[in-house]
Amino acid sequence: MFKTSLKTTLRIAAFALIGAAGLALANPAAAKTTLRIGWTTADSEVDPYAIAARYFAEELEKELPGKFDVRFFPNHQLGNDTEMLQAMQFGTLEAGVITGTLVATVEPSFQLNDLPFLYRDNAHAHRVLDGEVGQALFANLAKKKVIGLGFAEAGFRHVINNVRPIHTPDDIARMRLRVQPSDLFLASFRAIGANPVPLAWSDAFTAVQQGTVDGLEIPLAVIYANKYPEVTKYLSLTNHSYNALPLLLSERFYSRLSADEQAKVRKAAANAIKRQRETVAANEADILEKIKAAGMQVNAVENLAAFREKAMPVYERARGTIGSDLIDKALSVE
Q1: What is the pTM of this model?
Q2: Is residue 1 part of a domain?
Q3: Deepest in the core among 50, 156, 158, 216, taking most CB within 10 A?
Q4: Backbone angles phi, psi at 39, to 5 degrees
Q5: Got the DSSP string for 183-239?
Q6: pLDDT tens digit string along 221-234?
């Protein structure tokens, strides 16, 4: 559990008041169960978080018609990832699509997905996360009063910047890059020679725009949906990290459902995630062309092995945090 700031305490209280007000105004005879789902990025047709949230709502209506009144809260309306996670733990927020890296602030084993160059491609990531490894991660998270329904995705992360194209580790040397506030991300980028700067997502755009940082690492869809071509020049396809997006529920909310309803919620989540992955994959080629058309210079990185070699010591240092068994199981999946 993390410490509760006054700001977060007030926000949690506000969540509870909003939910109580909604129940008070509802017609008891026709009341639906309110399910608020929050995420931190844009409510865009191409934003992976938004796609996951909206597909989940559609699939819930198919499985449990009329059961839920799903309400969407994008763009930090319910706070940042950490605040939403804590609200789910307290039971004052029902659901969220949360950046996997920030889930690690609650359950450290989720740092597994941030290990540099762990997954070869999307299909490989799906085999790992839909199997025993993903089940183990969610079992760990359940102990923290948050239920994992599955892993949507935002694709692989790449580096964008205003200094130069990146082809070799020498090109990224000393580059000031915004990274997610994660010890693992900091260690990974230091290992390949960059100067990582941990910043909240809400501060990233302004930091690049004002030159506080040279760039950041980010998935393609999020680059486009959040207008980064307006403030950055270069996109290098580094494929350094797979961005998993856990779809999460509050345990308190989940426990109030019947066993049949829980099964249908899980089925709805599985169907939504399958659709979300297909949509994100279909969007990426189109998004890349749009990024180029918006003026960014794009390059492939031919020799990722050179970066991987520099980053591998990070795996050994992470074993104590993530768990050696979990890392070895992930590495064993073909």
Answers
A1: 0.78
A2: no
A3: 216
A4: -155, 165
A5: HHHHHHHHHTT-EEEE--HHHHHHHHHTTSSSEEEEEHHHHHHTTGGGT--EEEEEE
A6: 889 889 999 999 99
